[in-house]
TrEMBL record:
Superkingdom classification of source: Bacteria
SUPFAM superfamilies: HIT-like (SSF54197)
Source organism: Arenimonas maotaiensis
Record lineage: Bacteria, Pseudomonadati, Pseudomonadota, Gammaproteobacteria, Lysobacterales
MF-aspect GO terms: catalytic activity
Stored PROSITE patterns: HIT_2
Domain HIT, first and last residues per copy: 38-108
Name recorded for this polypeptide: HIT family protein
InterPro entries linked: HIT-like, HIT-like_sf, HIT_Hint
């Protein structure tokens, strides 16, 4: 019998710039220049909740969350607080938000969700940030 294939939810695909496929997750940069914000989606079909993953995948997901968080802190040194969340109220596919906040950001101290109008990255700025984040995350997995 064929195993189901992983498919990224269309809303997540539309809202992010692809960075890379880590060992478990597809990692994307949220297309909102107001917030340093990564989205990690385990490439496991039909997963809605963290406990739906096996223990080995849960441990790998945690390692990838940590790598994403360290990359954001490296690329955006002005950050003060990491917000890490798996809400899924709108998009049921398991995905993890890793957001680096600071007291001057557009939503501080409130949550970023539904906070004003999204400001998409310009092509050049998105490319620059993506390159820096890929380098930082890739170094984690090559060590």
């Amino acid at each position: 019998m064929n195993q189901p294939e992983f498919r990224l939810d269309g809303r997540l695909e539309a809202d992010t710039h692809f960075l890379l496929d880590a060992p478990l997750c597809r990692i994307g940069l949220m297309d909102d220049a107001r917030f340093p914000w990564l989205i990690l989606v385990p490439r496991v079909p039909n997963v809605r909740e963290w406990p739906d993953l096996g223990t080995e995948h849960q441990l790998q997901l945690q390692a990838e969350i940590n790598a994403a968080a360290r990359a954001l802190q490296s690329v955006f040194p002005h950050g003060q607080k990491l917000n890490i969340a798996a809400l899924g109220n709108v998009v049921p596919q398991l995905h993890i938000h890793v957001i680096l906040r600071h007291d001057g950001d557009a939503a501080w101290p409130a949550p970023v969700w539904n906070s004003g109008q999204r400001q998409p990255y310009g092509e050049a700025e998105a490319g620059r940030i993506i390159s820096l984040l890929i380098t930082s995350i890739s170094e984690t997995f090559s060590n």
